[in-house]
Amino acid sequence: MLSIQGLDVSYGPVPAVKALSLQVDRGEIVSLIGANGAGKSTVLRSVCGLTPVSGGKIYLNQQNITGMATEKIAKLGLAMVPEGRRIFQQMTVEENLLLGTASWTTSKAAIQRNLCSVYHSFPRLAQRRRQIAGTLSGGEQQMLAIGRALMSVPHTILLDEPSMGLAPILVEEIFQLVKALGTGGLSVLLVEQNASMALSVSHRVYVLENGTCVMSGTPDKMIGNDALRAAYLGGGKHALNSP
Ligand SMILES: Nc1ncnc2c1ncn2[C@@H]1O[C@H](COP(=O)(O)OP(=O)(O)O)[C@@H](O)[C@H]1O
Ligand SMILES: [Mg+2]
């Protein structure tokens, strides 16, 4: 579905991502984990054409999308839920969802169908469709941000730190939801600082350090690796979730 080959991204002279290769197959949940500043968001922004790449290639469904305009990439079936959710606080749940309607979806029937499908996946949003988004809980706002991305009916979705700022019980809920996206056939590239949660829902994981992939593999392999466990899964002095 999504294939990144030898990606280099720089901000001016400063490299942020170096020679990164990764792949997400259909229905697969793949996580990109790493500390703050490792380059995770840069990877996602490059995939959807928001940050220019300085080297490497990105393919979506075998089509080269490197350097393509964001809108065109979206039309090929890719959606992103950005860091920090960015929902419109003063608007209702449904108004926020409708903003996710793709520019190429013009028929009222199709828009209604997409809305129904999002409400079917997230009954909580259906119950709160007329509620002002700013009054939703953090978990519900994240749900809304994901629902809005689904309004364009993507086959591949990029999630940037969906658990950020959520209470532990809501984190659990959001990860269950991410898992359900994969089960529903979507390909998911998940960026997380919450490594243990990411591992629990992912088929494969890539670890990014200073823009370089230092390790990749199945969650089992990661958990079995002492150095990685110490650095990323709590306990070590570099534990990602330590304050
Ligand atoms: N717009 C930007 N301009 C300059 N440097 C940036 C910009 N965005 C991110 N960076 C730098 O690139 C590196 C990777 O950032 P980012 O991709 O946001 O990391 P992460 O999402 O893993 O926290 C960091 O050193 C960050 O300071
Ligand atoms: Mg980030």
**Percentage of residues in helical conformation:** 25-40%
- Heteromolecules bound: adenosine-5'-diphosphate, magnesium ion
* Morphology: globular
Task: Tell me the total number of β-strands.
Answer: 10
The CATH class of the largest domain, by name, is: Alpha Beta
Going across the biggest sheet, name each strand in turn: 6-7-8-3-9-10
Largest beta sheet, briefly?
6 strands, mixed
What is the topology?
Elements: E1 2-11, E2 14-24, E3 29-33, H1 40-47, E4 55-60, E5 63-64, H2 70-75, E6 78-81, H3 93-99, H4 108-121, H5 123-127, H6 138-150, E7 156-160, H7 168-183, E8 187-192, H8 195-201, E9 204-209, E10 212-217, H9 219-223, H10 226-232
Parallel strand pairs: 3-8, 3-9, 6-7, 7-8
Antiparallel strand pairs: 1-2, 1-4, 4-5, 9-10
Helix pairs in contact: 3-6, 6-7
Walk me through the structure:
The protein is of the alpha/beta class. It has 2 domains: 1-77 and 154-238, Rossmann fold, CATH 3.40.50; 85-153, no CATH class. It has helices spanning 40-47, 70-75, 93-99, 108-121, 123-127, 138-150, 168-183, 195-201, 219-223, 226-232; strands at residues 2-11, 14-24, 29-33, 55-60, 63-64, 78-81, 156-160, 187-192, 204-209, 212-217. A 6-stranded mixed sheet has the order 6-7-8-3-9-10, sandwiched between helices. The longest helix has 16 residues, at 168-183. Magnesium ion is lined by residues 40-41, 83, 160. Adenosine-5'-diphosphate binds at residues 11, 16, 34, 36-42.
Properties at a glance:
single chain; 243 residues; alpha/beta; Rossmann fold; 6-stranded mixed beta sheet; 10 helices; 10 strands; globular; disordered C terminus; binds adenosine-5'-diphosphate; binds magnesium ion
